[in-house]
Predict the 3D structure of the following.
Amino acid sequence: MPSTRLRTLRLSRAVSLLTALIATPALAQPATTVRLGFFPNLTHAPALVGLERGTFQKALGAVKLEPKEFVSGTTLSEAFAAGQIDIAYIGPGPAISAATRGMPVQFLAGASEAGAVLVARKDSAIKTYKDLAGKVVSVPSLGNTQDISLRHILSEQNLKSKADGGDVTIVPIPPADTTLAFAGKRADATLVPEPWGAALEAQGHRVIGSEKTVWREGKYPTTILIVNAKFAQANPALVTAFLKAHSEAVAFLTKQPAAAQASVNSELDKLTGAKLDPRVLQRAFARTRFTTALDADALREYAALNVEAGYARTAPDLTPFLRK
Amino acid sequence: MTVTRQPVGDARPASTAPSRLRVLSWQALGLLIIVGLWWLVTDGLKLYPPYVFPSPRAVWTEVAYGLWGTGPQDGKLLGAIGGSLRRVLVGYVIAVLLGGVVGLLMGAWQPLRATLGAYLTGIQSVPSIAFVPFAILFLGLNERAVLFVVILEGFIPVALAVSGALLNVPPALRVAGRTLGARGVGLTLRVLLPAAIPSVLTGLRTAWSFAWRALVGGELLIAGAKSLGEQLEVGRNTANVGLVLATIIIIGIIGGLFDLLLRTVESRVRRDYGLEVPQ
């Protein structure tokens, strides 16, 4: 019966339209904008200088760059899952979580290494990792890169978080709020990415774990560049252009540190409304290494730590997620 | 004056009233339909990617690992349920005691009722989550802040129910009590309060649901110890929507079971007081 067929056709059209509307948007056609996610942290410096100097926009040509600022990997990962972000600077923690859950993610390149320190409040008695027993330690968010590092540090000291039956309370506090949290004695220590560690140190708080003692003698990725795999498939030229701009930004950071610091500070000022003390920025800069190399071994170890921390039951095989 | 509630227009004899079994089977059918639809849009038609809306199977896996899994990282939901229940029960008992005392005072003394009673009604309209930032600043990022919010949310309905119930005791009982020699505190505790029990129980049930909701809201922001709120936060942060849904379902089931328990006690008491006619 034609009317039934017509109805079925209409219904199937409506269903597919609805699917397109509610599921991740179709990315088959060439993009007219590139939506970039990043944080206002020094560990995301390639994003900051790339934006400040217009490196990305120049590489993308007529395609418009739409930068979106996030405060944690969680919200960034949610935006990524919802199909609202195409390319992102993100920590390996949330990136590996995304891969574990089957999100269309591709790891493009490295961005920064090390650049996170464990800081103890100045009036706390914490001198070494052992003293963290019974204390409140903050991380930017549960399940993020620093949280996974912290849980690894604790397990090496035979300590456990309260939620795992131990006595160390791990609380999520955005890095920008740690100054207030320390002032209000709401946390005894924190594992934060730069420049927040150097900023706390400038206020007299003590660094008890340097970027080198936190993990793998500092040879671990802190921020990497990821892309939505569907976007990458539909826009290979855009991804290549963006990667080139990313390499330029990293080269600028490594070859002209002084100019790069001024550029980072200017972008941070634009984003957060506050400039950092140049000496703080310099110290934070010295603790962070910028690179485009993606350390696959370190990422695999991260995935294993993610399991150790209880955030995943199995470590995914990362090979299909890495860009060849 | 308490109005006796009796089903209007329900003239069926007790024998044809829907049996417990039938109600249960209808409820089971409803659940099957919901899970069926859920399966249809996820695993069946694959309308959503699993990291946005997981299938019933994926959520069940999280429940199974979380409740009776035996791996080193399993059983976390079970621990979370234990932690949350302990916290809410401590908060609830304190809230009921505090609310009872404040309610009695308000019931006995009109000026207090006119002032504090009005403020409490106002505070009750503020969502519990709004108090969390203040509680954190005031008490720190810890369990006490969660308890503060739970107690605050729980004690107000109890206080209002107790004072309201005292006022609604039939005047005849008051007069009779006075005639028999009861005065002041004695009259309140021995005559008015027993008469007010059914209404107080309604307040206790409201207080439970307020406290439970406040607890999960507080735990979500003050993650750190074993709690259902922390499981929600971990699920969110590790892109594990299956864990988020599993936790939501568990929160709903626990809240519903306690409400059912309190409702049973309430209706039993109402029956004993002659406020409900057994079918």
